[in-house]
Write a structure and sequence with these properties.
Elements lengths: L3 E7 L2 E6 H16 L2 E2 L13 E6 L3 H4 L9 E3 L3 E6 L14 E3 L3 E2 L7 E4 L10 H12 L12
Length: 152
């Protein structure tokens, strides 16, 4: 026996909502809240190589800045800094934990979107991925992938 409620759907029409309908609506609401969103680049930026992002815990952000030869667009929220890199910057690289790679610069949906905290002087939004990768490896004490011994 289900719980029923009524909701007016228009003049002279009543729509019945069952407990199953309400549960489906709630699931759909949760799914839409979990849909990631793309970091929006400044309008004057060009992305000839596509666009991905690397998230690092916020505590690493200020430590990375002076280690990089060029800093592109960087976004921040209270937990993470998001570095814009060219698409496919994860090919043949295992980004060191706790970094997270975001294909398409899609970030988890959260109440406040990460805000732009740094933009380059030119119109290319990228931080070079190899220097970023090496700086992250150094900060996290991780051996770069290509320096690890091969196992048979």
């Amino acid at each position: 026996m289900g719980v029923r409620g009524t909701q007016a759907a228009g003049p002279g029409t009543v729509r019945v909502l069952t407990l199953d309908s309400l549960a489906r609506l709630r699931r759909a609401q949760r799914r839409s809240a979990a849909v990631p969103r793309r970091l929006s680049l400044p309008e004057d930026m060009t992305v000839p190589l596509g666009c991905d992002a690397v998230a690092v815990p916020a505590r690493y952000g200020p430590l990375l800045l002076p280690r990089l030869p060029r800093v592109g667009c960087v976004y921040a929220d209270p937990a993470d800094w998001w570095w814009i890199v060219p698409s496919d910057s994860d090919v043949a690289l295992e980004w060191p934990a706790p970094a997270r790679y975001a294909t398409g610069a899609l970030v988890p949906h959260m109440p406040g979107a990460p805000g732009l905290i740094h933009r380059p002087d030119d119109t290319v939004p990228y931080t070079p991925p190899i220097p970023l990768y090496l700086a992250l490896c150094r900060l996290t004490g991780t051996t770069p992938t290509w320096s690890r011994p091969l196992s048979a």
